[in-house]
Design a protein that fits this description.
By secondary structure, the chain is of the alpha+beta class. The chain has a single domain, classed as Gcn5-related N-acetyltransferase (GNAT) (Aminopeptidase, 3-Layer(aba) Sandwich). Helix content is 35%, strand content 17%. The protein has four helices and five strands. The protein has a five-stranded mixed beta sheet with strand order 1-2-3-4-5, with helices on both faces. Strand 4, helix 3 and strand 5 form a beta-alpha-beta unit. The longest helix has 17 residues. The protein is globular and about 40 Å long. The chain starts with a strand and ends in a 14-residue tail after the last helix.
């Protein structure tokens, strides 16, 4: 079951639990190098802004079966940083702030359904494109994005000091 998250304490806790798992796997980066309190609070504020309608966007949670813990999540909001990508994505692009599926569910029909639901929800929201970042080591994500027609157009690099 995939559902759009609302501002309920249990859904917020489910989302934040999955975000922390994702962060601990180093598949997420909010401009802060580790799962710090500041970084998690920043993510919580983004979650609150899209679930309360302050900012255009949405969060989806995937529950493989009723009563089970969530297996995946994604959050997309209006993209406010067009210029630094150097590409015109249309008048209303969205940005994937978080997308995560627990390891034991990756590659399943449910995981694919979550990603496709996120793209469909973007269309419903009126986004003209969706962009995001994927770590180089995340081969499964690259393979999925390739299958659904995502085109890479920018590469970020880092040198750890």
């Amino acid at each position: 079951m995939i559902r759009r998250a609302t501002k309920t304490t249990s859904e917020e806790q489910d989302f934040m639990r999955l975000a922390l798992e994702q962060w601990n796997e180093e598949n997420i980066n909010f401009g802060i190098p580790s799962a710090s309190r500041i970084g998690m609070e920043r993510l919580r504020m983004m979650y609150m802004s899209v679930t309360t309608g302050i900012k255009r966007g949405y969060c989806l949670l995937w529950y493989p079966e009723a009563g089970l813990a969530p297996a995946g999540m994604t959050m997309v909001s209006a993209d406010e940083q067009l210029d630094h990508w150097g590409e015109n994505l249309g008048e209303a692009p969205g940005y994937v702030h978080a997308a995560y599926v627990r390891p034991e569910y990756r590659g399943t029909d449910g995981a694919n359904a979550l990603a496709l639901a996120a793209l469909e929800e973007a269309r419903v929201e009126g986004f003209t494109a969706v962009r995001g970042c994927v770590t180089v080591s995340n081969k499964a994500a690259y393979a999925f994005f390739e299958r659904v027609g995502v085109t890479p157009y920018s590469v970020n690099v880092a040198y750890k000091l």
